[in-house]
Amino acid sequence: MIHDILISIGKIGAPFGIKGWVKVISYTEKSQNIFKYQPWIFKINNIYQKCYVTSWKTYYKKFIAKIEAINNRCAASSITNLNVMLFQKQLNKLKNNEYYLHEIIGLQVLNTKNFNLGKVVNFLRSSHHDILVIRSQKKNHLRFKEYLIPFVYEVFIKKIDKNSKIIRVDWNSNFYNKQK
């Protein structure tokens, strides 16, 4: 059924009230933009289903939404913790120097001294900024080393080159020089 790539743009939180409203956690840069994308795709029991938001609002700096066919708390509970996905083709086209976070997963990360930290494997969300999760390619005592680098452009993130698939970061260069 689904031939396009699915992108996670958020997550359904706990039910809100008794009429089927749910809390919504947005992964979009401007949080409210999650509601601009319709339909949302949910994976329920290994089946992809399209759903539409019929209403949404801000509630104490968070979002709640009413999703079609979800009309009571029990139904809202059944979609708690589901990823809010959409087809990649639904995303707006970006300029050359812009990118979506999912596009840099898998890119190689080098620090300013050319030390290879590994590849981007994930992002963590914080209230201030995203955090790159980088996993080294070399095993160290049967474990891969992970680095968490704040995604702050021009401070820690120096350059993202999608063509060469490399991200340059300014991260603990003195520590890595001692390790060489």
From TrEMBL:
Residues annotated as domain RimM N-terminal: 9-84
Gene Ontology CC annotations of this record: cytoplasm; ribosome
Compartments, as annotated in UniProt: Cytoplasm
Pfam name, any one: RimM
Protein keywords: Chaperone, Cytoplasm, Ribosome biogenesis, rRNA processing
Domain of life, source organism: Bacteria
GO molecular function: ribosome binding
Keyword flag Ion transport: no
All copies of domain Ribosome maturation factor RimM PRC barrel, residue ranges: 102-172
HAMAP family: Ribosome_mat_RimM (MF_00014)
Entry similarity comment: Belongs to the RimM family.
Purpose of the protein: An accessory protein needed during the final step in the assembly of 30S ribosomal subunit, possibly for assembly of the head region. Essential for efficient processing of 16S rRNA. May be needed both before and after RbfA during the maturation of 16S rRNA. It has affinity for free ribosomal 30S subunits but not for 70S ribosomes.
Subunit structure: Binds ribosomal protein uS19.
The name this protein goes by in its record: Ribosome maturation factor RimM
Organism whose genome encodes this protein: Wigglesworthia glossinidia endosymbiont of Glossina morsitans morsitans
Organism ancestry: Bacteria, Pseudomonadati, Pseudomonadota, Gammaproteobacteria, Enterobacterales
